[in-house]
Amino acid sequence: MPTFTIVAGARPNFMKIAPIIHQLQAQQKQNPEIKFRLVHTGQHYDKKMSGDFFEQLNIPEPDANLGGGGGTQAEQTAAIMVAFEKELMENPCDLVLVVGDVTSTLACSIAAKKLCVDVAHVEGGIRSGDLSMPEEINRMVTDSITDHFFTTSEIANENLRKSGFPDERIHFVGNTMIDTLLAQMPRFEKPQGAIFDSLQTGQYFVMTMHRPANVDQEQKLKAMIDAILEGTKGLPIIFPVHPRTAKNLQALGISSPNLLMCEPLGYLQFNYLVKHAKGVITDSGGITEEASVMNVPCITLRDNTERPETITLGTNELVGTDPSKLKPYLEKIMSGDWKQYQGIPLWDGKTAERIVDILIKA
C-alpha cells in the first residue's frame, strides 16, 4: 500500500486538500495500512490565511510545518525546498501530492522529484498563457515533472496532451474546491460586525483585488474603484482587503460610504457573503469557480483566465483590467440580466473520491 505526503501552503490549498484528507481518513478505517502525512509549508502563516482553515474545514493539524513564509519569491521557494527535502529524507513516502499553483506547489514538486519520489498534481494542466503571472510559471514547471495529473476540465486534459503527456497519466476527476464548497455550504455563517448587520440578500456586492496589474498602479487602481462605485449605484461593496491593497488605498485616500473594507474573512464567512451577493467583482481564479457553482454573477478583472469553463458554463465574465470596460457588465448585473450556471462536468462533490481511488490503486 503506497504512502503519501500531502502538501499545503497557501489559503486556496486548504480548500483543495480538505476533501482528499477526509476521503483518505474514511479509507483508513477500512484499511489501516493507508498512511499519509500532511505537510504545511508555512507559505501563508497569518491565522486568517491558514490557521482558521484547519479549524473550519476540519483538517487535522499538520504533521510538519516548514515555516517557509516571507521573503521574495526566490527566497521563499528556496526555503521551502530545503525544508521539504529534509522532511522527505526523514519521512520517506511513495508519492507527494501537491495542489494548485502557488510557490509551495513548485518548490515541493522539485524537491520530491530530485529525491526520485513520484508527484501527483491536483489541478494539473490549467493554463492562462500569461507568463507575467508567477502562478503560470509554477503550473508549467510543476506539470513538466509531474507523474500523475488530476484535472478539473477537458480543457486542462487537452493542454496536457498538447504538451506530450499520455492519457494514462491524465485523470479527469473534477474540482476538489467544489467538493469543499458543496460539503460546507450548510455551515456558511454570516460574519460578525456592524458593517455586515444591514446587508440584505441580493443587495450588495463582494469584491476582492490583489493582483499587481490592478492594485500596484495608483491611478489605475483609483480609476477602477471609481468605476465600480459608479456602476454599483450606491449598493454596499464588501471588500476584504489584502494588506498590499490596503496600503495603496490608504495612500490614495480612497473612501466611500458604500465601500466597506474589512479584514480577510474565514472560509465559511466569506462564502456566505458570496452566496447571498448580487454579484462578485474579483481578480481571483478560485472565487470564479465558487461563484459559478453558487450561480452568482461574477466579473473578473483580468485579461486572461486559466479557468475558461467558468465563462463558457459558469457565471463568470472576463472583463479585463481597463476600468472603462466595466460599465456594461455592471449594468447587466444591476438589471438582473445575467447568464445562469450551466453545470460543469464532474464538479459534483465527488472529486476526492475519484482521486483517492486512483491513488490507492496506483
Kindly state the number of beta strands: 13
Helix coverage percent of residues?
40-55%
Kindly give the count of domains.
2
Oligomer: single chain
Uncertain ranges: none
Write up what this structure looks like:
The structure is a single chain. The chain has a 7-stranded parallel beta sheet with strand order 3-2-1-4-5-6-7, with helices on both faces. The chain has a 6-stranded parallel beta sheet with strand order 10-9-8-11-12-13, sandwiched between helices. The chain has helices spanning 11-30, 51-56, 73-90, 103-114, 134-144, 154-162, 176-184, 194-197, 212-215, 218-231, 243-252, 267-275, 286-293, 309-312, 326-335, 351-361, and strands spanning 3-8, 35-40, 64-65, 95-99, 118-122, 148-151, 170-172, 205-207, 237-240, 259-262, 279-282, 298-300, 316-318. It contains 16 helices and 13 strands. It starts with a strand and ends with a helix. Helix 1 packs across helix 7, helix 3 packs across helix 4 (103-114) and helix 4 packs parallel to helix 5 (134-144). The protein has 2 domains: 3-175 and 347-361, 3-Layer(aba) Sandwich (Rossmann fold), CATH 3.40.50.2000; 188-335, Glycogen Phosphorylase B (Rossmann fold, 3-Layer(aba) Sandwich), CATH 3.40.50. It is α/β, with parallel strands linked by helices and 362 residues long.
